[in-house]
Amino acid sequence: MARIVLICLMAVLAAGCSPSYNWREMSVAGGAVRAIFPDKPATVERELEFQGRQVAFSMTSASVGGGMFTVAYAALPGSATADASARVAFAQAVMRSLYRNLGAAEPEPLPAFGETFVIEGKSSKGALRLKGRVWLTDQALVEGLVTAVPDDFPGPEADEFLKGVAVGR
User: Fold this and answer.
1) Owning domain of residue 79
2) How many domains does the chain have?
């Protein structure tokens, strides 16, 4: 009996130490993407340069514990929507930047669009793991990304988040 009480007590203590996930479905990027976030997200926008053009990039993120769950969205410039090779070049450049920013070697070939990949790298604060997917449509580039330190990486929650990203247009 004492053993059962001890096990219950340890389970309660462990639950008190784990992050709290409060999943919610949200529309992002003006309704172009639906995603489930583990907490209330916030959106920031910034401009990126690609082939001499400024591309607006929005990032909607929520953090729980040490994990950051992000959906990034970039509407493709007008000329790229009519040019499949320009769309692919843009998406591959963005994907390569993920590897480069974490100081990791790019695989050859790069992961296919829509395929889950993992990058083990480093940030300015130390080791970092990124699990993500990149989707490319005729109109936009979408990324689903989860980042955290490797020892605290929320594996099952990252999988749930990435499965919950639905790209509409």
Assistant:
1) 22-167
2) 1
Distance CA 4, CA 22 (A): 29
pLDDT in tens, the chain (169 residues): 444 433 333 443 444 445 689 999 999 998 999 999 999 999 999 998 777 778 899 999 999 999 999 999 999 877 777 888 988 998 999 999 999 999 999 999 999 999 999 999 999 889 999 999 999 998 899 999 999 999 999 999 999 999 999 998 5
> What tokens appear for 142 in the block?
């979408």
Cβ-proximal residues to 42 (8 Å cutoff; 6+ apart), any chain: 60, 61, 62
**Is the distance from CB of 167 to CB of 32 less than 8 angstroms?**
yes
70 located within any domain: yes
